[in-house]
């Protein structure tokens, strides 16, 4: 009777083939998923590059928007995006890192801070169109900025703010407690500890997360449409209260034209946008690697 | 005062004189939330002594030493009552700033915790936060502190290299040097050798013997042999209470309380 309940090694060895089979099938499924994604991406890139590359010329960068595709360029959009980001980056970085430091280092853990935390995380998932409506109401109308750089910049800053906060919080939370103890143990104040120990340790993480968030602001179209950013701009802004257009707006405008030439121009614009995004992401990677080498 | 026993072998001339206390703990109670972690602690710690605090895990010895420089404030939900006097000043009073207390009382932690900076910057850190900017003073203090921690000869050619390149034992001596730079009065050590190998441990113990000439040292250890080797006085903590506080000789050779005897002879803990 005793033997019936016992484990039989022959039986287990007999099952090995079946287990290995399963192993292979699962691996195949994951490989197929990866291959599918990669192929779609390659097709997309191929189409864009083959369409847009011939249009990439010095004139393309030098010219403003035009009714005639051979004269249309992306100058206003590139310069406009730079102006807008010069609002987005400082606004989102100061508010985001400040909030993260307060929540992680100063705020007492209470029901209120947990509630705030939950709302910040949820805001990160709110559709960008909603931020556009917020920007339209507050910055364009209430503050009376109109559809200008400053209004669009603040709107985009709000859009990426939750991501900057969450990324900064995670970076700050990753600072080893022992290091903070060492600083406090030497009689440092809270600010000295934050400034000399916490921030230097957390900056790579904060920078990486923030740059990824900023690159989202460069690519977003919906909030700009809602805020009323024009698509056809034939001048450069000279101040933050000027009108402007941005890369995704220009691309959106070109794709909605009936002529094929404009579609190709849109593809050329997308190449520029992708190049900017890749550049920004590379900077993020570079920062991370540089500081990790310590 | 609060001291009942006097170390008869080492300093007989002290018997007549009034003993100078660096720390005098009176009726200290401490709670983590509902957990009563320290119960009615009364302890007078003498100047220039090495005072060891021993006891099994969870007995409150680490909690107590962290209370002495108020590092315990960093733990949320801690309540205390009773007093701890440092040089006759109540450390819990509003007038005694915690930054001042921690400047006068250095701390060495369980795990070596140098900053991710150079050896030099690790020691300069304490000076810089106290507003000392003079390069020459900083340079001299770095050398003096490293010599004081018996580390100078090993690192003098690479003080601008990262502290993480040092061995664990060297890192811990660097942390001691970092304390010494501020010329503290008392050095608190919370199981400073528990993460070190035997050779590094021995070096740190030798260093403690040198340091006791100039500083009062309070050391938490779960290593009873270590307490016996290096300390003048030993306090035995159990379940948040001080079971016995006496000269190390007495604690290890003729303890008054049977629980102390059981613990030091390895019957529990």
Count the domains of chain B. Answer: 1
What's the alpha carbon Rg of chain B, rounded to whole Å? 19 Å
Number of strands of chain B: 10
Biggest beta sheet attributes of chain B: 6 strands, mixed
How much helical structure, as a percent, in the residues of chain A?
over 70%
Please give the alpha-carbon distance between the first and last residues of chain B.
Answer: 31 Å
Order of helical and strand elements of chain B? EEEHEEHEHHHHEHEHEEHH
Structural domain tally of chain A: 2
> Would you tell me the structural class of the helices and strands of chain B?
alpha/beta
Q: How many distinct beta strands of chain A? A: 0
Which whole number gives the mean pLDDT of chain A?
Answer: 92
CATH architecture of chain B: 3-Layer(aba) Sandwich
Low-confidence stretches of chain B: 1-16
What would you give as the CATH superfamily of the largest domain in chain A? Answer: MetI-like
Full CATH superfamily name of chain B: P-loop containing nucleotide triphosphate hydrolases
The shape of chain B is globular
Top-tier CATH class of the largest domain in chain A: Mainly Alpha
Describe this structure in words.
Chain A has 294 residues and is an all-alpha fold. Chain A folds into 2 domains: 2-55; 60-292, MetI-like fold (Orthogonal Bundle), CATH 1.10.3720.10. Chain A has 12 helices and no strands. Chain A has helices spanning 9-14, 16-52, 58-62, 75-106, 111-123, 128-142, 149-173, 177-185, 190-219, 222-227, 247-255, 260-292. The longest helix of chain A has 37 residues, at 16-52. Chain A is flat. The termini of chain A are far apart. The mean pLDDT of chain A is 92. In chain B, the strands form 2 sheets. Chain B has a 6-stranded mixed beta sheet with strand order 6-7-8-3-9-10, sandwiched between helices. A 4-stranded antiparallel beta sheet of chain B has the order 2-1-4-5, covered by helices on one side. Chain B has 269 residues and is α/β, with parallel strands linked by helices. Chain B has a single domain, classed as P-loop containing nucleotide triphosphate hydrolases (Rossmann fold, 3-Layer(aba) Sandwich), CATH 3.40.50.300. In chain B, strand 7, helix 7 and strand 8 form a beta-alpha-beta unit. Helices cover 34% and strands 25% of the residues of chain B. Chain B has helices at 61-68, 98-104, 119-129, 135-148, 152-155, 168-180, 198-211, 224-230, 248-253, 258-264, and strands spanning 21-32, 35-46, 50-54, 78-86, 89-90, 105-108, 186-190, 216-220, 233-238, 241-247. Chain B is built from 10 helices and 10 strands. In chain B, helix 4 crosses helix 6 (168-180). The chains are: A mainly alpha (294), B alpha/beta (269). The interface between A and B is medium-sized, with 21 and 28 residues.
